[in-house]
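agent: user wants the full assembly modeled, not chains individually. Plan: 1) parse entity lines 2) check alphabet per entity 3) run joint structure prediction 4) return tokens. Steps 1-2 passed, two entities, 1240 residues total. Proceeding.
--- entities ---
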Amino acid sequence: MLTSKVFIKKTKRGSVMKIVREHYLRDDITCGSRVCGLCEHPKKQQKPPLEENPNNRSSLCKRQHYLLPDTNVVLHQIDVIEDPSVTNVIILQTVLDEVKHRSIPAFKRMKDMLGNPDKHFYTFCNEFNKDTYVEREPGESSNDRNDRAIRQATNWYRQHIRNVDIVLLTNDAENKTKATNAGLQAFTVYDYIKSLKDAGSLVDRLANPLTKVSIQGNKVLFPEHLHLSDIQRGIKSGRYHQGNVLASRENYLEANVSVGGLDKMVFIQGMINLNRAVDGDIVAIEMLPESEWSCPSSLVLVDREERQKEEDDLDENEKEVKNPVPEELRQPTGRVIGIIKRKWRQYCGILQPSLLKEATRHLFIAAEKKIPKIRIETRQAENLTGKRIIVAIDSWPRTSRYPLGHFVRELGNVGEKDTENEVLLLEHDVPHSNFSQAVLNCLPEMPWTITEEDEQKRTNLRHIDICSVDPPGCTDIDDALHCRRLENGNLEVGVHIADVSHFIRPNTPLDNEAASRGTTVYLSDMRIDMVPELLSSNLCSLRSNVDRFAFSVLWEVTDEAELVGKPKFMKSIIHSKASLTYAEAQMKIDDPNQHDTLTESLRNLNKLAKILKRRRIENGALSLASTEVRFYVDSETHDPIDVQVKEIRETNSMVEEFMLLANVTVAQKIKDEFPHCACLRRHPSPPPSNFDPLIKAAKSKGLTVDVSSGKALSDSLDKAQFPGNPFFNTMLRIMTTRCMMQAVYFCSGMLPEDEFVHYGLAAPIYTHYTSPIRRFSDIIVHRLLAASIGADATYPELLDKQKTQMVCNNLNYRHKMAQYAGRASVNLHTQLFFKERVQDEEGYVLFVRKNALQVLIPKYGLEGTLFLNAPEKGAASLFTYDEEENTQTAGDVVFHVFDPVTIQLFIDRSNVQNMKLSVKLVKPVVPGFSVPPAAYKQTTEPPTKKRKK
Amino acid sequence: MVDVNLSEAEKTFIVHGIQDNFREDGRSNEEYRQMDLETGLMSNTSGSARLRLANTEILVGVKAELEEPKPEKPDVGRLEFFVDCSANAAPEFEGRGGEELATEMMNLLYRAYSASTVLDVSSLCLQSGKLCWVLYVDVLLLECGGNLFDAASIAVKAALFNTKIPSVKVRQEEGEETELEVSDDPYDVRRLDVSAAPTVLTLSKIGHNHIVDASQKEEACCLARLMMAVTASGSVTATVKEGRGSLDPDSITEMMQVGKRVGKAVNEKLLETLKEEEQKGLKRKTVGFLR
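--- prediction returned ---
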């Protein structure tokens, strides 16, 4: 049977068209139930998905029944539906289509459930069944039509299957009444889930029903969001702007919105102006008049737990916004007038302890400071105290100060390392599940042997004395080196990189998985591999005394490190003679008694590396500082027992130098061969305004920093010394690092060539070639290089610049997230380390903020925030902040940037659930604020309760 | 015009019959043949109608499109007529053979609808000087069985009655481009008021008498005819005299009187039928050409 769908569409040219589409109705769409004897179920398929004895036990419906949820139930209660105990559900096509239209993530989760045979879910194509198709009636909204279609299908099922009942789940009162009147069984999700025999935690997972909002009376706190069509019109006319909300990492009441077309971010301040936008949302904003423009309060918001009355806060915030801001500091400021797309996801965090034990309404505090608190309902609050949980946001009505959400699942106890690791992996969107069977099937069979064919295709370099130099404990060795004297007196230097692309073939599940993971993530105590362990730690790892496949680059150089001829690229088989650590390699070089070929080779490499480095620095490459720390872990408890800043040896820089050389050489080669689709890495030069804080800070010490070019900057950093402060230069370099842009991967066809430049390395072109085991970009580069020397074939995606750019975008994102996760892991370990300690340390002021000092503690390479609030609430602060001079003054003590201070480190236990590292001032002494040195106290005892704000 | 070859004897027979107010197919001089009408049979148009008058088959489709109004009339929308005579209808229409007739029909339709009272074209204007609805009325002649002009005009009126214009709101705020808002409800449409729209009535002078709704054979006997566009209220919006023969003023006056009377009746009956069909609503099954 044929019918047609008619709709009216507005074309791009502004005309209005009537469009008619054919729509076929069929009579052979099956119901998908095993009890049905009427439908001709396809024979090839195994059994239909819906079981004979659905095990749904509810006191509302005594008989066995299938569930049939409507669209809103699927959209909002997807966490409930995902629970393994919810089975035998009929998903109508109407519902699935609408879910797809309204939320892609929910749709994906639904598809996963439908694909899972244990869930016994069935998609019924009611729109194509001649008995269940309904046409829209005059005066009926499309939602009403869909509701009617759902009821029609429910009714059809009811008449079709006699032995099993059908239960319609809907939260829409009208729909429910209509269904009940039509003789159908319809319940709200809340009633149904509560009626289940073993409802348990399912009840908590129910999304907050909108209708139940009675919190705080009905005081409307937020202005209404504009309707989408108004927004679109406003955007078109230029009155509004569309952008992504990036909440400030320091203050969740401030955010920047990146608007396409404007070069500066638009600043948004205050709860009302943010108008319920959460980090990541796509919103429409309106610019405020210039007179109301503001700037970040450069105020580190004191932890939210300490804020007390909500109403008070609101007023406070309003005041904040009205603060007159000096004109020169003003930034384009706007306010959110509507939400175009929510980007809500699930958030990790903890419950805020409630005063009432029996209360079911609780506030949830996300681990990310960018996210506001979320109000949830749970009966198991007592169980969940002290646990990390995951919560999803459902809605944010105008009357509620916080968004409403529901509990999803718990991760484990706060403070346990496994839980905390899980949290930070989840928070940074790091894929960390085990590799799927499909991926593992792509691995070569063990024992792995080198075949005749491999021998023929590859150059045999087994006879060369190659060695690898890595940090201790490294199992994924992806680079090895050699250097030997040629007959003509020149030196031959070789860099050998693990040939991962030999094992990871394009478009296999293994390839897709690696591309999606993008990078191996290193946490302080664990590693989340990009490729399965068999490859990362065995077959690809260039271990000593075994034959391994490598991708080699060979250069001929003179003793003065001048390149002779062209570099040679080859797929090879190598046999590494030794896997050294940086320290071992250093000892070999320094030991005058060793004269074996390996040592000589290392000495030559070291000598060449020094020349290369000098040349690079002369070219204007920056040497920047960041502090990396290493934890010494107790073998029993796995708790860190000591922490130390990583040591940099000559050999580190030696390996680095040759890796840079290889990367640059390969980048040039693949760019020449594939000018449009080479995967490169660039580091844009930062806009001069980025350096403002650096220049200001240096000026306060009477120094000038020239930022006109990389070379000038590098030189002025070298010259910047300050007597009496040995750490000054390093701090300046740390600050410089903060001024830099992010280096990113990109596809060479997408940008003009003069933007390829790598600012930090002062190289006109750069890529990543040397770590294919832990970075996917390197695998792409390997494939390109292999294709350019005829060692491997290309494939369509490799040569498509759009596809390559998409891969690059994902890599950039994963990379950034991996970095954040790594840093978060270090913070976590620092906390564990200080769990039992109170220590006084030397530190330096790195930044001066409105109500805090950011202090760098070189010994641990960490930064602490020293709050300068008044000891008691209401009392005037002891400190006065000078925005111009960037100083804080208390009495006769003045804090400048770079000033040395002594501070006390301890774990703040005032909040049992969320311990954190806190600092207090010891020296210089500020009466009424600083504390006596720790030595006077017993170190194991927790310090006196932290001052209340 | 499409001709049939008739012998003198046949012609005489027809003429004599008409003199006695008894035509060869048994009708009186002021009687119409059986008419079949269906509207809304083409879903991709804004409005459509199919008319079968004995053997004459006409299909009319109306498409509404948004365009700029003509500069001389910035505040009104307009109708555009187009007639296509299919070569299937008569061998004479092959190639460009149908164009002459088509132009003639088009001109008559333009004239019939040119009076400002027949259709409220100002309601088709959305924004003065910028945006208005233009209704493209396409008439397709599929089969010839005489009295093509009447049939075409009745089908046009029925199609206009059936026309559903999407309801579009125009928003304009200061200094901004116009913005169209289209309702997502397919039933949220505007209808045209065609109660004052004319239909064409052709009076053929045969011998000393005149008849309405001439069949093909009768047309072959006719020397002169008067075509007039008559509305339901009986007002005439256009007249055209056609044919080689001449008409004296007296008979013109008389023919006009008959034309008004019959035209009024045809219009009334047409509207009645259309409303009846409309009442059947969505449950009505479209027939199209399946019969």
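agent: reporting back. Chain A touches chain B through 24 residues (CB under 8 Å). Chain A has a mean pLDDT of 80.
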